[in-house]
Write a structure and sequence with these properties.
Elements (H helix, E strand, L loop, with lengths): L3 E4 L6 H12 L4 E5 L12 E3 L5 H10 L4 E4 L5 H6 L1 H19 L6 E3 L2 E2 L23 H20 L3 E2 L1 E3 L1 E3 L12 H11 L2 E4 L7 E5 H13 L11 E2 L3 E3 L1 H11 L4 E4 L4 H6 L8 H7 L7 H14 L5
Length: about 325
């Protein structure tokens, strides 16, 4: 029987992926952990407070519950990372190293670790950034993710740790608030549209970035982890994408449903980060190796986000 450990379960990805995993393996088989206490549905299953940098606590959980799969989602994202580079490096890198080390010497059979489009940089092709290309990240978050990709590939090649990874674009979901990323305008704008009817965007209106609706991101994770190991041919991290849009394009789509909603633009330090990322991603390799297909485009994503947030307006 699979026993799953989710580290960083209360974050943007973790809050939805944990529930999806419990739907697959059963509530009691999926242990959620975080440095923050869970809310709502997450609290209905097993949960433990865990700081990924506390090696003894991590090992104790793995051994006590005979963990077979680990999903390491704990990280400090791009914008927040620039304010605390040393802390970001320690959490993002030491956390991954702790998991990979225990995975090669325990009951753990599979590890999932998310990478990011932050691994790309100013020298990466802007349009349809390839799976294998120049990467020159200029944020500590991006640097840690690029180093993490190399570590994942190393532990697979040298120690046969079955670690799998996706280079996520900006992720958009309604179950959690923005977590400190450069693409978080695409989440915050919905909350502002419903609560305040106006939004000041920290990126310029025509900044084009790759994006994905959270349901697609969760499904991609489950499909990658379920794929036959022989089909997983990329052991650094797979490019994955669904759509690209600018703040202005997203605003216009929301405005169709909320005609009283207005937007202004006041680019800050995050503009420079976004300017060094690609406009779009080539995820041909993922589509070829394990039949990845996205389901949500801009129109469907906006309609779904507004519908779900309106139902939970009291909690915004």
């Amino acid at each position: 029987m699979e026993k799953v450990l989710v580290i960083g379960a209360c974050g943007q990805i973790g809050s939805e992926l944990t529930l999806a995993l419990r739907g697959v393996y059963g509530t009691d088989a999926v242990i959620a952990t975080d440095i923050n206490k869970p809310e709502d549905e997450l609290a209905e299953g097993p949960f433990f407070m865990l700081n990924i940098l506390q090696k003894k606590d991590l090992l104790q959980l793995i051994e006590k519950h005979e963990i077979t799969q680990i999903y390491l989602l704990a990280a400090i994202l791009s914008a927040k990372g620039e304010a605390n580079p040393r802390t970001t490096w320690e959490l993002n890198m030491e956390g991954l190293l702790n998991v990979l080390e225990y995975a090669r010497n325990s009951s753990v059979k599979k590890v999932f670790w998310p990478s990011s489009i932050a691994v790309f940089g100013s020298l990466t092709p802007k349009v349809a950034a390839p799976q294998d290309t120049i990467m020159n990240p200029d944020t500590v978050y991006g640097i840690s993710k690029l180093a993490g990709e190399r570590l994942c590939e190393y532990y697979f090649e040298k120690f046969k740790v079955d670690v799998r990874s996706l280079r996520f674009p900006g992720l958009i979901g309604y179950k959690s608030r923005p977590g400190g990323g450069t693409t978080d305008f695409a989440v915050d704008i919905f909350h502002k549209a419903l609560k305040e009817k106006t939004y000041e965007c920290f990126l310029a209106e025509n900044t084009l970035l790759p994006m994905m609706y959270m349901d697609d991101a969760v499904r991609a994770t489950l499909e990658l982890m379920d794929a036959d190991s022989k089909k997983v041919k990329v052991r650094s991290s797979y490019n994955i994408s669904a759509m690209s849009f600018s703040p202005a394009e997203l605003f216009r789509e929301i405005n169709r449903y909320r005609p009283d909603f207005t937007i202004t633009y006041k680019p800050d330090f995050r503009q420079k980060i976004a300017d060094n990322w690609p406009n779009s991603i080539d995820d041909t390799q993922a589509r070829k190796d394990w039949a990845w297909e996205h389901q949500y485009g801009l129109t469907d994503m906006v309609k779904t986000m507004l519908s779900n947030l309106e139902k939970n307006l009291i909690n915004l």
